[in-house]
Write a structure and sequence with these properties.
Length: 296
Amino acid sequence: MPTLANLRGDAPMRGIALMVLASLLFPVGDAIAKYLIGSYDVILIVWLKFVVQTSLVVLVMVMTLPLSTFKTRRPLVQIGRGLAGIGSYGTFLVALSYIPLADAIAIEFSSPMLVVALSVPLLGERVGVRRWSAVVVGFAGTLLIVRPGFGLVHWAATLMLFAAVCVALMQIASRVLAKEEHPMTSLFYLSLTGLIVSTPPLLSLDTVALGARDWGLMIAVGAIAGFCHYLFVRAYEFATASLLAPFTYGQIIGATLLGLLIFGDFPDGWTIAGTAVLISSGLYIAYREKRVAHDD
């Protein structure tokens, strides 16, 4: 079975282009979801997102890959990754009901620091003083955004810390799976787990009539998410994670612009400062991981 490591080619600019496109599109889907939250239950949005995303992933796999790609060697890890995925997205949508889009995405980008911290007990990795220092600085940046106990930021901002933990767990699981699974296999089980878990709560909701426009928006949320995940998968085939890391932060820029244009939200000075600290810490961690991997 091909893995992420042996799929990579020597076309880094192609990988960067794919990552930039995905990073610019992701906030569009999130902005649509934030708009829909004002009228519909979060469970309905989550369920339809995973219906569309799963359908697109299956279509791509059937058309481009052998059917054996649907089989996983690590079902428990895949399910755990899927649970973390729906935990992060569900929490993200709840938080979006109360806080600006850019703030939510910025807090979610504390996940690289959490990956470093959690990789020690979960993967047995050794982390040096420099990366631990970057983790501490990164969490300081997160505190600048959340400002717990000061009553200046909505309590829902703390929900994004849970979402960031879920994202970090997904990334750690991805490291384990990348050694022996095709990336599309992992994307399929991520989508399928989210669909299965979100279905029972949906059945308890009252019947909701959606207009043609809202049906289109609901479908767009899942289609954009599925397409962006696919772009991420393809990007990592052509370039390394450390090279692509700076371009993932384009999501924050896109979210800021959309939040301003659509919802009239713009981050305050503390949030901008905290986001800058988070980005700097994340980029330094990516740089150090590249150096450590090269030295090994």
